[in-house]
Amino acid sequence: MTSPRQRAQQRLIFALDVPDLPSAERLLDQLTGRVGMIKVGLELFTACGPAAVHAVKARGFEVFLDLKLHDIPATVAGAVRAANALGVSMLTVHTGGGSAMLKAATDAADPELRILGVTLLTSLGAPDLPPVCLHGTPAHIVATRAALAAANGVGGIVCSPQEVALVRSAVGPDVAIITPGIRPAGAEMGDQKRAATPASAIADGADYLVVGRPIKSAPNPAQAASDIVDEIARALDA
Ligand code: C5P
Q1: Is 200 left (phi over 0), alpha (psi -120 to 50) or beta?
Q2: How remote is the CA of residue 122 from the centroid of ligand 1, in Å?
Q3: What is the pLDDT of residues 11-52, one digit of tens each?
Q4: Res. 1: pLDDT tops 70
Q5: What SS3 class is residue 68?
């Protein structure tokens, strides 16, 4: 039996954005039993490779490998097969890679590996889109890419917390929604432009929240994680 608080904790994914293994292990030690899953991203994976995944798994956490794969279909399929072998639970691909790439990724994934489609980085705001030849609104781009990814078999969509309702209507009830860009009230925004609080992301229907710097840079990361879990639990209860 899982308690309401455990269910809230399962929804919190910590972004382990650190440059080396000793820093990763220090944070993992502080956060054992405090978060639901650990996200290994580009910084740590580029620095340490599979050793980073093994260190996280050795502490009993599931791993979300956030490599935002964006390449030709055959190359992405090969990377997905390598992720199967690593035993990670979630892996991101970029929906901008198009239909054939998305299908190659989901076809190559073992049943235990959930492929997630990244729609539009939460650091991009509307003014950032025309210079990269994206001429719709963020909402239009996110909804179109989410529907494309769902049609090609992804198990989840990564989007801004402000786009949860939009994505839910584009993908239906069976695709998980994962939102980075989470900032508890009063926290530093950093480079996130389309952010929301944990409570509002949950109220909008997000399944998992990804939180990095508000936990990592807190004076007491364990306490910061615990406060966010409390906020998620209250939002789930409401
Ligand atoms: O530190 P912060 O809470 O902003 O971390 C957010 C994490 O989510 C980072 O690891 C970042 O790579 C990731 N992410 C994001 N926007 C996306 C997809 C992933 O911020 N669209």
Answers
A1: alpha
A2: 7
A3: 999 999 999 999 999 999 999 999 999 999 999 999 999 999
A4: no
A5: strand
With beta carbons less than 8 A apart as the criterion, state whether 208 and 235 touch.
Answer: no
Q: Distance between CA 190 and CA 137 in Å, rounded?
A: 22
| Cβ neighbour number for residue 42 with a 10 Å cutoff | 12
Quick one: CA dihedral 111, 207, 59, 181, positive or negative? positive
The structure's pTM equals 0.94
Distance 182 CA to ligand 1 centre (A): 9
100 within 8 A of 91, measured Cβ to Cβ: no
Query: What length is written for the chain?
Result: 238
* Residue ranges per structural domain of the chain: 4-237
Q: Are strands 114-118 and 156-158 parallel, antiparallel or unpaired?
A: parallel
pLDDT: which is higher, 124 or 16: 16
Torsion of CA 231, 233, 218, 210, to 10 degrees: -100
Ligand 1 nearest atom to the CA of residue 191, by list position: 4
- Would you call 68 a catalytic residue per the annotation? yes
What is the CATH number that goes with domain 4-237? 3.20.20.70
Tokens of 194: 């389309």
